[in-house]
Amino acid sequence: MSTLEIIILAILQGLTEFLPISSSAHLILPSQLLGWQDQGQAFDVAVHVGTLFAVMLYFRKEVGSMIIAWIGTIGFGPSKHSGSFDGKLAWWILLASIPLGLVGLLAADFIEEHLRSALVIAATTLIFGFLLGFADIKAKENNSLESIGFKGAMLIGLAQAIALIPGTSRSGITMTIGLILGLSRDNAARFSFLLSIPAIIMTGGYLAMKLITSTEAVNWMTMGLGSLLAFISAYACIHYFLILLDKLGMMPFVIYRLILGVGLLWFIMA
To answer: Can you give the pTM of this predicted structure?
Structure first.
């Protein structure tokens, strides 16, 4: 890859990992539409590491509190945290991540072979864009994270597994279900971001295992630059997204998805 391609793809990964517009679609499309060389597994691992550090650093207080409380729930550490909502939330996030892991293990090869086309991306971009818009328009409640309960958390986790289909958007579909369940926009986004931590770890770990068993050469300079740029763009994205969310809502992203989906269909059929 050229330096320009590295910069564009790393920034795209950082921005789209947390915006409700699908990171996988934006990484697949340049190779399909512009004829760019596939970025390879090493680069995919690097940008996932960058986005993981970004979300963990941004939510470091919440993550730290959840880890301490979770340790208390299994009989270690300070017992005063064991009954807190942080411990419960940690369990919800861990258990809600299981569907993604299972579907990923069972269907990863099928998705890789059959669902990475521009047509699939166009369809999922439009379908789940409409759903996000519907959820945002209908969202009138302003509930806390605790209000969704374990069943609600698992429902969001099940929806997250659907996002393995390129174009769906992991953050988009989890925020959509969060809004439908009555969460405020801010809480729907925060739960989605916290749920992304095990999701990115699982995805990055899977790609790392594939890289270890492959014969692909590793360019450490490319990996380092990709990881750094993904980290910076992801951190900035989370920060400004949460600031602007209450003012703008989801509609700018819905409109973007609809324009992108229609544009892709036009390109395919032209």
So the answer is: 0.89
What's the first-to-final CA gap in the chain, in angstroms?
A: 28
Q: How many independent structural domains does the chain possess?
A: 1
Question: Residue 205 is encoded by which pair of tokens?
Answer: 């770990």
Contact 36, 30 (CB under 8 A): yes
Cβ atoms of 115 and 166 closer than 8 Å: yes
- Parent domain of 158: 3-269
Contacts of 150 (CB under 8 A, 6+ apart): 92, 95
Taking only the tens place, the pLDDT of each residue in 8-47 is 889 988 988 899 987 766 776 676 666 667 666 677 788 8
pLDDT digits (tens, 9 = 90+) for 138-170: 877 788 899 999 999 999 999 999 999 988 999
DSSP string, the chain: --HHHHHHHHHHHHHHTTSTT-HHHHHHHHHHHS-PPP-HHHHHHHHHHHHHHHHHHHTHHHHHHHHHHHHHHTT-S-GGGTTSHHHHHHHHHHHHTHHHHHHHHHHHHHHHHHS-SHHHHHHHHHHHHHHHHHHHHH----B-GGGGHHHHHHHHHHHHHHTTSTTS-HHHHHHHHHHHTTB-HHHHHHHHHHHHHHHHHHHHHHHHHHHHTS-----HHHHHHHHHHHHHHHHHHHHHHHHHHHHHTTHHHHHHHHHHHHHHHHHHH-
Q: What angle do CA 226, 119, 49 make, to 5 degrees?
A: 20
